[in-house]
Amino acid sequence: MMELILEFAYTGSVNVTESNARRLFMEAVSLNIVKLVQICCNFFEKTLCPHNCTSIWQFTKNYHVPELQLKAFHYVLSHFEEVVFGEEFLQLSDQDVIDIISSDNLNVRQEAAVFEAIIRWITHEPQEREGYADLLLPKVRLSMMPTEYIQSHVLSNKLVTDNLMCQAMVSEVIKSKDRILGRPRMPSAILLAIGGFSSSRNLPNVIEAFDVRANHWINITDLSEPPHAFHGAAYLSGYVYCVGGFDKLFIATNTVCRFDLSTRTWQEVAPMHYCRFNVSVTVLSGCIYAIGGYDGHTRLSSAEFYQPETNQWLETAPMHEQRSDASCTALNGKIYICGGFGRNEHLQTAECYNPETNQWTLISPMSSRRNGVGVIAYDNHVYAVGGFDGTAYLQTAEVYNPHTNTWRNVSSMMTPRRNFGIEVVEDHLFVVGGFSHFTTISDVEYYDSKTNEWSQACDMDVGRSALSCCVLSGLPNMADYTIPRDLCF
């Protein structure tokens, strides 16, 4: 270690490895070599993984490196479902386990994962740890579990049946589940629904955030930003971009503005080459693609992409079809666009763009014509949902397999709709608002590919069509876009 430290003193560089990082860090701390401490901290941060994050978190508790300690703890919370299957988790103290499972920020899709984690921790050393069951079980949010799971897995578990306090606690939860709303964990991602127009054909300038774990919408409207409709929205590197659409005078625009999620301020960036409303927008390889749309005179076949680093839009090869009111998504390095309105008809055609060759290729057409369709990548397939076929509003959905170039039907939505928002959040496909039966709607539903079923979610506060959605994740200020957990009881 001293040899490495002397080398660093003379050269300003050092070879930090997994085998020497901790000892080097301890020596650097004892000798108060601030730069070397930071180099070691950077190494720990870069090498965080589910197999070492708990030991790094533990290790940093003995030294004053609060930033690294916090990052390691957040990593544990974010990757909990992987962390619990590692050996390090089994070596934690009871207080460490309590600190983890008490956190609102613990990222678990089903609360059952927390219960099963504490059972695994206790049964690793049953004689020493069985007494901790009544300390740990209250930290599990039992009221967020299905009653069937509680009865079949919790009440029947020996650690619960052998502990009178645990039995009473679980029984009380079952009795009160219909009366008391549980305190949900913080979501790993937030769904934003931006803009649109209402049934009175005005632009309400509304932005709502959906807290999927609490099944609740929060209004985060910023009145300093002009209203948007028939635009595209994309989330990229901490910013939400609103692309094209039309302005308050209902004129097509090429304007692009972005919302900084940390400062909650808007800023214009470089405009597109073309005015586009009813535009299709997606993100691929760190760039935002704007495809097709209507410029006020013509349906467009052109496409362009935005590079944030250079603040420039560059054109791509045009599509085979002119199309507005279509929808697109990125999957496995390619972009898929489906449906829309062409020169004179509602389209059932679909195309695929390969950025490596700068070429569009027609793929198998959908089974239905779909204007105002929602298209999204989900479960490694491309889903095309809803729309208007020229006669009726559609509630049907179909899914494209890129490997076989074929479409197949899946379960239909509960509500027919067109010009709605569509996104995937926590392994469910959400459809938001839209236009149905001659009016804008606020209702929201979601699809689970495992069960092939649609379920109802909480309605938005404002019914609107021609809105656009995007999903935010990894925000340091996630709580700003969720319902306060103290209000969830």
From TrEMBL:
Pfam families: BACK, BTB, Kelch_1, Kelch_KLHDC2_KLHL20_DRC7
All copies of domain BACK, residue ranges: 53-155
Gene3D superfamilies documented for this protein: 1.25.40.420, Kelch-type beta propeller, Potassium Channel Kv1.1, Chain A
Keywords: Kelch repeat, Repeat
Name the record gives this protein: Kelch-like protein 10
Natural source organism: Parambassis ranga (Indian glassy fish)
Lineage, highest ranks first: Eukaryota, Metazoa, Chordata, Craniata, Vertebrata
